[in-house]
Amino acid sequence: MDPFVDTLQRLREAFVSGRTRPAEFRAAQLKGLSRFLQENKQLLQEALAQDLHKATQLDSAFIRKEPFGLVLILSPWNYPLNLSLGPLVGALAAGNCVVLKPSEISKSTEKVLAEVLPRYLDQSCFAVVLGGPQETGRLLEHKFDYIFFTGNPQVGKIIMTAAAKHLTPITLELGGKNPCYVDDNCDPQTVANRVAFFRCFNAGQTCVAPDYVLCSPEMQARLVPALQSAITRFYGDDPQSSPNLGRIISQKHFQRLRGLLSFGRVVIGGQSDESDLYIAPTVLVDVQETDPVMQEEIFGPILPIVNVRSLGQAIDFINRREKPLALYAFSNNSQVVKRVLAQTSSGGFCGNDGFMHLTLASLPFGGVGSSGMGNYHGKFSFDTFSHHRACLLRPPGLEKIYAIRYPPHTPRNLRV
Ligand code: NAD
């Protein structure tokens, strides 16, 4: 019998119920803590004296942001320049030396980063390292002072395990399935324009792309023709010949995506061309929660629609799954958007649009749970790549005041 199961289950159920969220609840708990300290001062002093023979006192303090030292940045192929240079800006701004390991899959960008970028930076402080999983594994045997990884959650676990061997702090910018709730109360064409655009951007190979839609069967009946209209307007009758639609990065990902087209029922698109690594913008309906297309991050221009009967059911569906990197809710009723926001968790959130939240430098960008840990963008990048050193400076004099600290702690001593 595991002695922790009941307690952990009780606390998790309490968290899911939302009890800890209201400000009044939090204030009441903090007041309780404060009362605990006041009402049990004597008891606590005795306990601390028995355990540790200790008493502490702090003056004013400040935080000094210092570079960690040698930083490793590992980047993916889907935005190979942006996701290499973005973290690099933060690491350099904070004063670190950097090893950048771009993705070996986006070969042309990797080549430019390796051959040209170092000419623009001080090469005694910056290096680009090339290679795939094997070389990265070897690189990770070395000790770094900070690791910043962008990639998929499975590889994230490998990176975290390697970092743990040296107790190296990390940021993990991972992926997952981003839900997109569409309420009955909204204009289907507006929603379709926005969802189709953000789903098909970079041929769907975007970590924050809306991955699937949750809506009622009634909304689905209105949304599908609107999605068809948006896709035709954006990419024409033959999307393969459109200059505005990207291609799948590799044969491997193409095969994976083509495999996903066989789940549910294709109502828009569905065509593919291996010689061109082309997958048409595709919408699937009649999709089951257990289908592979609902298990793995799609990372392509395929949009499954899953039916729910109510907002509560949509929220339950989202909360049954891993916490996503981004979450989207569309409704003309701001209360609906607010309820989705309040009763779920995700790295970021955008009401009534796609991934616009990540374009603002004033907002931190990062995941939570299996979609990542830590964040960056704007000033958050500087903070991520800095150690926040807690400092206290004390004048050398005033010894009489501080003498109260020293043992023996007799009543006479305490009157000094
Ligand atoms: P990936 O995890 O396969 O690769 C990322 C980096 O890790 C690459 O540099 C690669 O060489 C290295 N790598 C791969 N396998 C490794 C292994 N076994 N051991 C050590 N290193 C290894 O990711 P990807 O396919 O390049 O990118 C797609 C994934 O990245 C998706 O899951 C996407 O959601 C995620 N992503 C997240 C963000 C974000 O900001 N949160 C942004 C873009 C992409």
Describe this structure in words.
It is globular, with a radius of gyration of 27 Å. The chain has helices at 5-16, 23-39, 41-52, 82-93, 107-115, 133-140, 153-165, 188-200, 217-235, 251-260, 311-320, 334-343, 378-384, 399-402, 411-414, and strands spanning 62-67, 70-74, 97-101, 126-128, 146-150, 170-173, 179-182, 212-215, 265-268, 272-273, 278-279, 282-285, 302-307, 326-330, 348-351, 372-373, 386-391. It starts with a helix and ends with a helix. With 416 residues, it is of the alpha/beta class. It has a seven-stranded mixed sheet, with helices on both faces. Strands 4-3-2-5-6-16 form a six-stranded mixed sheet, with helices on both faces. Strands 1-17 form a two-stranded antiparallel ribbon. Nicotinamide-adenine-dinucleotide (NAD) binds at residues 74-78, 83, 101, 103-105, 132-133, 136-137, 150-152, 155, 158, 173-175, 207, 297, 299, 325, 367, 372. Residues 74-78, 83, 101, 103-105, 132-133, 136-137, 150-152, 155, 158, 173-175, 207, 297, 299, 325, 367, 372 line the site of nicotinamide-adenine-dinucleotide.
Topology:
Blueprint: H1 5-16, H2 23-39, H3 41-52, E1 62-67, E2 70-74, H4 82-93, E3 97-101, H5 107-115, E4 126-128, H6 133-140, E5 146-150, H7 153-165, E6 170-173, E7 179-182, H8 188-200, E8 212-215, H9 217-235, H10 251-260, E9 265-268, E10 272-273, E11 278-279, E12 282-285, E13 302-307, H11 311-320, E14 326-330, H12 334-343, E15 348-351, E16 372-373, H13 378-384, E17 386-391, H14 399-402, H15 411-414
Parallel strand pairs: 2-3, 2-5, 3-4, 5-6, 7-8, 7-14, 8-13, 12-13, 14-15
Antiparallel strand pairs: 1-17, 6-16, 9-12, 10-11
The structure holds nicotinamide-adenine-dinucleotide (NAD).
